[in-house]
């Protein structure tokens, strides 16, 4: 017995189930077991930084930040607006993304490669023209490089701000290298390999970045009108505020989003710490289940 009151245990289970259902979808339990319990070699060993970052509740903030930052490339945003179905099926898109991250981070090498092959197949069919007449292809290595850089920067910054065990500088560099393994598989020829190179890569994209009307519409949808029950909107608003607060000023300004200087920023960050701790508590398996949930190496 762990001495936890039954009411608290039930609350924890209900919260965890609600979060997991949203993130993983109806097939989530079976997918989770396949990812973690299937024997075989993995792309990443159990002690790799990518496992620490992607297994932490800070990813909820990092994921929202990544969506906002990625939207600032007009070609990437045009592809998302035309082909992703983020308005009609936002939870389906989230579930596909979270499953991809879980499979490539924790799954067997065969499953990770299969997930990458599927994404590359989908990307190969996504092409079009923006309202300004610019052509785009989701398989374009340069465009894939922007999506990758925005994700890596967002996941890492959120983890360093809200993660249970932030990485040291060497660990941050190692996380960027881990993510480069996935990026190359997806078709990015020269992903950044450390934090300095990541910052330089983002700077290289800056002349191309701006907020189109599609980007502003996506930000309004993601931040203000998520399809959530009333009881979940308060916590989600705190996640969204922290995602916005963690953006670089040039990005939040381009999207017309508020800044959080001084005491306001401190207060927002405090809510982010409290919320990610709450999610982490709810989603952590009870001690008797820990061995079952530990991914095999």
From TrEMBL:
What InterPro entries does this protein map onto? MPAB/Lcp_cat_dom
Endpoints of the signal sequence: none
Pfam families xref list: MPAB_Lcp_cat (PF09995)
**Molecular function terms from GO:** oxidoreductase activity
ER-bound oxygenase mpaB/mpaB'/Rubber oxygenase catalytic domain ranges (all copies): 51-281
List the coiled-coil residues.
none
Annotated protein name in UniProt:
DUF2236 domain-containing protein
Q: Which organism is it from?
A: Streptomyces genisteinicus
